[in-house]
């Protein structure tokens, strides 16, 4: 009999590895990690198994209960049988954008990777809730949602939690007040057109607009919108500590059924899509997370300036959706 929830993390690079480690440290779930091997001359190296063993030994050192297992898989989809029994599957696998690579090339490459993974989730974990982290996350969430054919409440993308954390960090540094007392939402696409909601952001209940001058708030918005790029410039690689923590926050909300309101990229349709003027796309909005995944999509109020920013963000997401559809249709025709 299974007593603990199982979270499978597909992709054991920086984000996936740190996600698995943080989940294990929380002691709430058992973790399964999946990744490709690599060759060192004639020798086959299986890093995912070593990372899982290392994390397992870390738990022993800290006297934390939990099970962490690593599984080597192939690009063609072999080795995913251990997805069976997963309550949540987190997809961090993907190809990073390289110099000279067009956005279309990146989409093609990552949809190819995620098509295989989604097919295996559908085969081995048809009841799982799926969290997509692979970039560009709104488009990849849409692609996985289409491929899986799951109910929309069981597929979501991680972006808004991370973007909101960055916004809170910058507000905290500026006001010298603990982020625990700062409430700030960032919605929209996970990119330069994301929308920090100033009208409802507050510090200890005091509206942010009453604490900081407008020009300074605009500077914090800009820094938030380019927060990922700032880290890439400083580290030479994309962030992984804060993204992993953001994934864990979503997982914990689902596992503990605590009904958190968190901004996630989800598929919009019907009345809520009309409210957001964003029909049939995945984009970041506040949602209530619980045992059933996305249990409610919150219709958050926006002032006129924010609504205009929102429309630009939706347009930015839609821009590449036609190409994603073409790729998906081409693959389904094979």
For the CA atoms, what is the radius of gyration? 20 Å
Q: What would you say the CATH architecture of the largest domain is?
A: Alpha-Beta Complex
Can you tell me the residue ranges where pLDDT is under 50 for at least 5 consecutive residues? none
Count of extended strands: 16
Helix % is 40-55%
CATH topology of the largest domain: L-2-Hydroxyisocaproate Dehydrogenase, Chain A, domain 2
Strand line-up across the major sheet: 5-2-1-6-7-8
* Sheet with the most strands, sense and barrel status: 6 strands, parallel
CATH class of the largest domain equals Alpha Beta
N- and C-termini, Cα separation: 40 Å
User: Which H/E pattern describes the elements?
Assistant: EHEEEHEEHEHEHEEEEEHHHEHEEHH
Oligomer: single chain
Estimate what percentage of residues fall within beta strands: 15-25%
Mean pLDDT: 94
The overall number of domains is 2
CATH superfamily of the largest domain: Lactate dehydrogenase/glycoside hydrolase, family 4, C-terminal
Shape: globular
Q: Structural class, from secondary structure content?
A: alpha/beta
């Amino acid at each position: 009999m299974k007593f603990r929830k199982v979270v499978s993390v597909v992709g054991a690079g920086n984000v996936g590895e740190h996600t698995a480690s943080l989940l294990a440290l929380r002691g709430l779930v058992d973790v399964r990690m999946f990744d490709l091997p690599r060759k060192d001359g004639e020798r086959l190296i299986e890093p995912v198994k070593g990372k899982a063993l290392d994390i397992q030994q870390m738990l022993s050192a800290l006297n934390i209960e939990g099970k962490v297992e690593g599984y080597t898989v192939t690009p063609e989809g072999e080795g995913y049988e251990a997805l069976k029994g997963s309550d949540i599957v987190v997809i961090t696998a993907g190809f990073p954008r390289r110099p000279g690579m067009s956005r279309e090339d990146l989409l093609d490459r990552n949809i190819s990777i995620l098509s295989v993974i989604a097919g295996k989730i559908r085969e081995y974990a048809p009841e799982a809730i799926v969290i997509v982290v692979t970039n560009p996350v709104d488009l990849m969430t849409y692609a996985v949602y289409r491929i899986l054919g799951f109910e929309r409440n069981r597929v979501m993308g991680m972006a808004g939690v991370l973007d909101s954390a960055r916004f809170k960090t910058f507000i905290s540094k500026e006001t010298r007040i603990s982020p625990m007392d700062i409430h700030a939402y960032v919605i929209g696409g996970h990119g330069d057109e994301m929308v920090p909601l100033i009208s409802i952001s507050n510090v200890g209940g005091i509206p942010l607009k009453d604490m900081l001058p407008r020009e300074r708030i605009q500077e914090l918005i800009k820094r938030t919108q380019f927060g990922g790029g700032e880290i890439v410039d400083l580290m030479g690689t994309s962030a992984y500590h804060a993204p992993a923590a953001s994934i864990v926050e979503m997982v914990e909300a689902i596992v503990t059924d605590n009904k958190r309101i968190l901004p996630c990229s989800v598929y919009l349709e019907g009345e809520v899509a009309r409210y957001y003027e964003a029909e049939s796309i995945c984009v970041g909005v506040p949602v209530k997370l619980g045992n059933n995944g996305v249990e409610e999509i919150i219709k958050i109020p926006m002032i006129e300036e924010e609504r205009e920013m929102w429309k630009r963000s939706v347009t930015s997401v839609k821009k590449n959706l036609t190409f994603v559809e073409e790729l998906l249709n081409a693959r389904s025709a094979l």
